[in-house]
Amino acid sequence: VIDIRAVSKVYRTSDVEVHALRSVDLTIQRGELVAIMGQSGSGKSTLMNIIGTLDKPTDGSYRLDGVPVEDLDETNLARLRNQKIGFVFQSFNLLPRHTALANVEVPLVYGRVPKAERKRRAEESLRRVGLGERMDHHPNQLSGGQQQRVAIARAMVTQPVLLLADEPTGALDTEMTDQIMKLFCDLHRSGMTVVLVTHEPQVAGYAERIVRFRDGRIVSDEQNQER
Amino acid sequence: VIDIRAVSKVYRTSDVEVHALRSVDLTIQRGELVAIMGQSGSGKSTLMNIIGTLDKPTDGSYRLDGVPVEDLDETNLARLRNQKIGFVFQSFNLLPRHTALANVEVPLVYGRVPKAERKRRAEESLRRVGLGERMDHHPNQLSGGQQQRVAIARAMVTQPVLLLADEPTGALDTEMTDQIMKLFCDLHRSGMTVVLVTHEPQVAGYAERIVRFRDGRIVSDEQNQER
Ligand SMILES: Nc1ncnc2c1ncn2[C@@H]1O[C@H](COP(=O)(O)OP(=O)(O)OP(=O)(O)O)[C@@H](O)[C@H]1O
Ligand SMILES: Nc1ncnc2c1ncn2[C@@H]1O[C@H](COP(=O)(O)OP(=O)(O)OP(=O)(O)O)[C@@H](O)[C@H]1O
Ligand SMILES: [Mg+2]
Ligand SMILES: [Mg+2]
Q: Which candidate in A55, A149, A155, A200 could, as Cys together with A86 as Cys, close a disulfide (CB 3.0–4.6 Å)?
């Protein structure tokens, strides 16, 4: 369970304060499929980085399965991230001089999974996103959409309990978008909690619940009627 | 005028050949507004890189305003790119340790525009994309959509005759997408040739002509009826 109470985030640059999040309250139950929408710059990625323990709030509290995240030291945070959370970054964040396969293996290396099993699971994850023919390509030998799918395969390979995906289909065409969303629905049906950021109505249509942001605040939080 | 005849592009990796473009014929007249669509991996970015003289075809010929591009040396190509072509990359390609303003000034520095005029034109370009309040931010202090808008402002700032935009609205919400497309239509009305890659029907709807790719080939090339 994700339990966010009165969380604010303020960035201080040279001469100005940017209030990216303004006292946000949000609870997400285990096994939910939630879409977060909102204009460019409204605080969606900032929230996802906090939920994924990649960034700390300026104010307020965040509990993950009842445990206050601010009480965890870096070692425990790193273990929590590696074993419980899969993250698809908005900017992909692939390792440039590594193949698609090696990129997907990275979280398994941190998780001390033996080499043969690592390779098998990474290959399977790449096949599930339609990249069976591109495993040896480096990021700069892949198209934009293919790079995004490598990032998705990497986030799924550890079979996390929580999948956080920030605009996971931004570089994909409508057909591939549907394929990836069906994959996320399979993972959701098997019990995974999935939180995704999107500005595409086609993607939000798959979610059970849609949370909308505007200027750092939640302006609506509704069950998705169309599902 | 862009005149592409029987252009192919083959990437050779360690053990396999990837045919990204297969004998493509395409002519784009001055002042057209053309959208290129197609599945992920179908060759769209490869074509844009060739049109923008950032990459060379493996086979076939490319003439820009009647001049065979393969006959130009690197100095002439660089001058042609800087003065005639604006490019919005699919991966933004911003300079990390530079502000948004400095990033937009880069093409004007190459074009030897004096400092005061440079600053004025870069500020105006950033305001046109709605980033008047973020000029001093570095790329890692901007949201995904804001970074994309900096890349758009940089491509427009030299007032090129040809604007090439590769998924220019991939990180933008529907409202901002409309704002950017209206901006592109203004530029098009003032005589600029605009070629954009998109997988979003909302964006293709603005174009005069829609060219569709599949597996490295053009499968359709039609006037847009809905405009
Ligand atoms: N440097 C390279 N070496 C090998 N293959 C490459 C290289 N660059 C691209 N490719 C391959 O060429 C094909 C075309 O890539 P391209 O980037 O043009 O696709 P795209 O249509 O832009 O796709 P997307 O919508 O995902 O951005 C892809 O299958 C890709 O894997
Ligand atoms: N390191 C930083 N320093 C200063 N301001 C920042 C920083 N990171 C983000 N911001 C600002 O915080 C606000 C929220 O950014 P965020 O990345 O959460 O937006 P977003 O909703 O994900 O937008 P997009 O849809 O464009 O990705 C933006 O206005 C952005 O300029
Ligand atoms: Mg974002
Ligand atoms: Mg591309």
A: A155
- B45 alpha carbon – ligand 4 mean position (Å): 4
The count of other CB atoms within 10 Å of the CB of residue A74 is: 7
Report yes or no: A37 and A212 within 8 Å, Cβ to Cβ. yes
pLDDT tens figures, B38-65: 999 999 999 999 999 999 999 999 999 9
Structural tokens at position A7 = 């969380």
Dihedral pair phi/psi, residue A163, rounded to 5°: -110, 120
Please give the radius of gyration of chain B, using alpha carbons only, rounded to the nearest integer: 17
- Distance set, CA B47 to CA A168, B25, B42, B105, B125 (Å): 24, 11, 10, 27, 27
Interatomic CA distance for residues B37 and B32, integer angstroms: 16
Ligand 1 centroid to Cα of residue A171, in Å, is 12
Question: Which burial class, exposed, middle or buried, applies to A60 when counting CB atoms under 10 A from its CB (0-12, 13-18, 19+)?
Answer: middle
* Residues in chain B, overall count: 227
Residue with tokens 């758009």: B152
Note the pLDDT tens digit of each residue in A174-217: 999 999 999 999 999 999 999 999 999 999 999 999 999 999 99
Contact of B96 with B147, CB cutoff 8 Å:
no
Q: Which residues, other chains included, contact B5 with Cβ-Cβ below 8 Å and sequence gap of 6+?
A: B25, B60, B61, B62
**Contact between B147 and B131 (Cβ < 8 Å):** no
Coil vs helix vs strand at A161 = coil
**Cα–Cα nearest to A24, from A210, A217, A221:** A217
| Contact between B21 and B7 (Cβ < 8 Å) | yes
Mean pLDDT over B70-83 rounds to 94
Q: Which residues line ligand 1 (CB under 6 A)?
A: A 134, 137, 140-146, 171; B 11, 13, 18, 20, 38, 40-46, 90
Say if A15 is an interface residue toward chain B (CB within 8 Å): yes
Q: Whose CA is nearest to atom 28 of ligand 1?
A: B41
Report the SS3 class of residue B203.
helix
C-alpha angle B54-A144-B45 in degrees, rounded to nearest 5:
35
